[in-house]
Amino acid sequence: FGLLHQRRLYLDQRLDELRAEERLHPAPGQKEVVRAIAAPYAVRFQLEPGVQASLARDRRSILLRGHSGRGWWFRTDGPDVAIEPSVHVDEGLTRRSLQIVVRGSARTDSETKIRWKLSPAGAGNDPA
């Protein structure tokens, strides 16, 4: 579709919140060449085996819990977020796992931004 992907990561000073921005934009010179269409995208986040994931009622947040039991919120402004099955391959071993998938569509003649963040659960920052 002639789009480039860039990811910007921002870590807060307390080191307990990661914010990011995925940017999809036309390659230099592509804007004039490519007919403008809505191109589908899927941004995938592979989870380590054993990580539990639950979609929140707001349908834009996912609660993640690892082996320690500590919870983390994944939040996005993307139009569609889902938890899907995946596989984890490590040193020849294949294990079942999960992935977070953020889907939407990006115009081929302009920039699309998908923002997300990962922050600790609790302390009053849980979704409504």
Structure commentary:
With 128 residues, the chain is mainly β. It has one domain (3-120): Beta-galactosidase, Chain A, domain 5 (Distorted Sandwich). The protein has one helix and nine strands; from the N terminus they run E-E-H-E-E-E-E-E-E-E. It has one helix at 30-33; strands at residues 3-11, 18-26, 38-46, 52-55, 61-65, 71-76, 80-90, 93-107, 112-120. It has a six-stranded antiparallel beta sheet with strand order 1-2-9-6-5-4, with no helix packed on it. Strands 3-8-7 form a three-stranded antiparallel beta sheet, with no helix packed on it. A hairpin with a 2-residue loop joins strand 7 (80-90) and strand 8 (93-107). It is globular, with a radius of gyration of 17 Å. It starts with a strand and ends in an 8-residue tail after the last strand. The relative contact order is 0.29. The mean pLDDT is 90.
